Automatic annotation (TrEMBL):
Domain Histidine kinase: 33-242
Domain of life according to the entry: Bacteria
Pfam families: HATPase_c
Alphabetized UniProt keyword annotations: ATP-binding, Kinase, Nucleotide-binding, Phosphoprotein, Transferase, Two-component regulatory system
Example GO biological process: osmosensory signaling via phosphorelay pathway
Reactions catalysed: ATP + protein L-histidine = ADP + protein N-phospho-L-histidine
Entry-linked PANTHER family: SENSOR HISTIDINE KINASE GLRK, TWO-COMPONENT HISTIDINE KINASE
InterPro entries named in the record: BphY/WalK/GraS-like (IPR050351), HATPase_C_sf (IPR036890), HATPase_dom (IPR003594), His_kinase_dom (IPR005467), HisK_dim/P_dom (IPR003661), HisK_dim/P_sf (IPR036097), Sig_transdc_His_kin-like_C (IPR004358)
CDD domains: HisKA
Record's keyword annotation contains Nucleotide-binding: yes
Name of the protein in question: histidine kinase
One MF term in the entry's GO annotations: protein kinase activator activity
């Protein structure tokens, strides 16, 4: 009887694993299709904004349309990230030396207009370090972490992007002084459609899911620390690259 129970339990576990894998595969296909299909109306919206500006509008209206256009461009990049992370195969990405200074500056520049519009101060601590990574995929991770920090910091908030390093690795940290995340929410914040308990309708909660998928493909560990009322720190760690000495 004991052997029979063990066999049945093992079969049940295998079935549960298969169901979970099928659900993850179905979710990946859904996200990839959604990311692709949303690009067309996004391009239509961008062209409509460009036409409105070229036809001539008041300066304040042009500035607002510019912010809307920037937001749509970011959305297009996020949709590309979503499709790429959902379609990633088993082949590991090629890791090359990636200078961090231009990468961090580019990420912050992408979010700066939105941060300025809502009154968030974003600061980058320059770094001459290099890591072994894939530049586009690392950009995907940082774009989502910085954007998430700006949104959660809110009006009057601050976001700091910087690096800590050891001889063999570099940890890129994104800090915000927002409301923080409840301890019971931390374990699920990287799941698709989780918004860390937010009820303000700010996004679908896919950004951190994309971060996790991309970081796993790169084998770059990600971590989060948060205290209610004190803000959050998200980080990604990559191998440090040391240029060969002549």
């Amino acid at each position: 009887m004991g052997l029979t129970v063990a066999i049945l339990s093992g079969a049940a576990v295998d079935e549960a694993v298969l169901r979970a894998e099928a659900a993850r595969s179905a979710m990946a296909r859904l996200l990839a299709v959604a990311g692709h299909d949303l690009k067309q109306p996004l391009q239509v919206a961008l062209m409509a904004i460009e036409r409105a500006v070229s036809d001539g509008v008041a300066p304040r209206a042009a500035a607002r349309l510019g912010l809307a256009s920037d937001a749509l461009v970011r959305l297009g990049r996020e949709l590309d990230d979503l499709a790429r992370s959902s379609q990633s195969g088993d082949a590991p990405p090629r890791l090359d030396p990636v200078p961090l200074a231009p990468l961090l500056n580019a990420v912050v520049a992408e979010w700066q207009p939105y941060a300025d519009a809502i009154g968030v101060r974003v600061q980058v601590r320059a770094s001459a370090l290099q890591v072994n990574s894939e530049a586009v995929m690392l950009m995907t991770i940082l774009r989502n972490l910085v954007g998430n920090a700006v949104k959660y910091a809110g009006p009057g908030g601050r976001v700091l992007v910087g690096c800590r390093w050891r001889p063999d690795r570099v940890t890129i940290e994104v800090r915000d002084n927002g409301p923080g995340i409840a301890p019971e929410r931390l374990s699920g914040i990287f799941d698709a459609f989780d918004r860390a308990g937010r009820r303000d309708g700010a996004g679908l909660g896919l950004g951190l899911h994309i971060v996790r998928q991309t970081a796993q493909a790169l084998t770059h560990p990600i971590e989060v620390r948060s205290r209610r009322g004190r803000g959050s720190v998200f980080s990604v760690t990559a191998p440090r690259h040391r240029p060969a000495r002549p």
